[in-house]
């Protein structure tokens, strides 16, 4: 059986092209299982997984929980609210207390970039990054690429536009790493104030004009304006943002071709995307949700399988 090259999923930047293809192949198998009448398999029976979410989450948390339940894992759920973190307990002390309960895998979302990597160096459990600050969100990047790949058949030479708040997004980097590894061409679009200065280091091109970006691409992945991470004004108003960089039905209708429309959520209707666009036949947001469970099942399975072999070899 093929093995993934990493022991933890800290970011897409640590994966190889073969790793991503293996994750996609494994997700295909699990997606078939998810469409059966009985959707549960005993693959991770006896494995205990802790979901540590130090930031609010709905989609990612529910998706991981469902993936874990479909694989028959035992689950511990932790949230910052009501925990000893509010009393001053450190991250490592909190985790060590959870590890004392014999946890095999940890899914962590944390506001600090590098939190997942820090844990991987201080614990023996398998760590999966569910979003660390404005750094990476690897399973989201993987499921976005998988969703485009499933619809277009391949990502080689496909053109993908990443639109919106690139500066504060943890999804953007994971998307860029995934798409580049799989041979796609990537452009980013949005207000210049929301584009990182280092973006050219990642083999992407900045496109300042939305209409030109849409005419160029095969798929557009729309990122949310993350107001909660902004400590200053990056653009005049939300209305101005929508006028210049919001996806409107008129923009889609002007195109002489069909493009895929993605959004990792949550969605700010009327800001980065108009409500009527969500009903467009090429909007594959619900595909992303379904594929997210399959991708996370694949990641859990591949990392748990490798961990078991590591334990046996020790």
Brief overview:
This protein has 314 residues and is of the alpha/beta class. The protein has helices spanning 17-34, 59-70, 91-99, 115-122, 138-152, 171-181, 210-216, 238-245, 249-253, 285-313, and strands at 48-53, 74-79, 105-110, 126-132, 159-163, 185-189, 205-206, 219-222, 260-262. It has two domains: 12-137 and 292-313, Rossmann fold (3-Layer(aba) Sandwich); 138-288, Rossmann fold (3-Layer(aba) Sandwich), CATH 3.40.50.1370.
How many discrete structural domains? Answer: 2
Helix content: 25-40%
CATH A-level architecture of the largest domain: 3-Layer(aba) Sandwich
**Rg from Cα:** 20 Å
Number of helices: 10
Q: What structural class do you assign from the helix and strand content?
A: alpha/beta
CATH superfamily of the largest domain: Aspartate/ornithine carbamoyltransferase
**Element-level helix/strand string:** HEHEHEHEHEHEEHEHHEH
Strand content: 5-15%
Sheet with most strands: 5 strands, parallel
- Measured between the Cα atoms of the first and last residue, the distance is 19 Å
What is the C-level CATH assignment of the largest domain? Alpha Beta
Mean pLDDT: 90
Describe the overall structure.
It contains 10 helices and 9 strands. It folds into 2 domains: 12-137 and 292-313, Aspartate/ornithine carbamoyltransferase (Rossmann fold), CATH 3.40.50.1370; 138-288, Aspartate/ornithine carbamoyltransferase (Rossmann fold). The two termini are 19 Å apart. It is globular. Strand 1, helix 2 and strand 2 (74-79) form a beta-alpha-beta unit. 39% of the residues lie in helices and 14% in strands. It is α/β, with parallel strands linked by helices. The model is unreliable at 310-314 (pLDDT under 50). The longest helix has 29 residues, at 285-313. Helix 5 (138-152) crosses helix 6. 43% of the residues are buried. A 5-stranded parallel beta sheet has the order 7-6-5-8-9, with helices on both faces. The protein has a 4-stranded parallel beta sheet with strand order 2-1-3-4, with helices on both faces.
């Amino acid at each position: 059986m093929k093995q993934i090259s990493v022991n933890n999923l800290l970011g897409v930047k640590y994966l190889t092209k073969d790793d991503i293809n293996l994750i996609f192949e494994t997700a295909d198998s699990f997606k078939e299982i998810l469409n059966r009448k009985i959707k549960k398999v005993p693959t991770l029976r006896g494995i205990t997984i802790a979901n540590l979410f130090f930031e609010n989450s709905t989609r990612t948390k529910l998706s991981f929980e469902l993936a874990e339940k479909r694989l028959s894992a035992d689950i511990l759920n932790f949230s910052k609210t009501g925990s000893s973190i509010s009393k001053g307990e450190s991250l490592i002390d909190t985790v060590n207390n959870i590890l004392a309960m014999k946890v095999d895998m940890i899914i962590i979302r944390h506001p600090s970039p590098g939190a997942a990597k820090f844990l991987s160096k201080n614990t023996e459990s398998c760590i999966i990054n569910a979003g660390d600050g404005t750094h990476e969100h690897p399973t989201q990047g993987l499921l976005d690429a998988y969703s485009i790949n499933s619809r277009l058949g391949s990502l080689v030479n496909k053109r993908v536009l990443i639109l919106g708040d690139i500066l504060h997004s943890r999804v953007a980097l994971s998307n860029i790493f995934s798409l580049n590894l799989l041979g796609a061409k990537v452009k980013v679009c949005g207000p210049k104030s929301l584009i990182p200065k280092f973006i050219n280091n990642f083999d992407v091109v900045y496109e300042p004009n939305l209409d030109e970006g849409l005419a160029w691409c095969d798929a557009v992945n729309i990122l949310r304006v993350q107001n909660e991470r902004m400590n200053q004004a990056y653009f005049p108003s939300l209305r101005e943002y929508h006028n210049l960089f919001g996806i409107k039905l008129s923009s889609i209708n002007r195109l002489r071709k069909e493009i895929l429309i993605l959004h990792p959520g949550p969605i700010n209707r009327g800001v980065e995307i108009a409500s009527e666009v969500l009903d467009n036949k090429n909007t594959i947001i619900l595909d992303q949700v379904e594929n997210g469970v399959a991708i996370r099942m694949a990641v859990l399975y591949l990392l748990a399988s490798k961990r078991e072999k590591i334990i046996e070899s020790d």
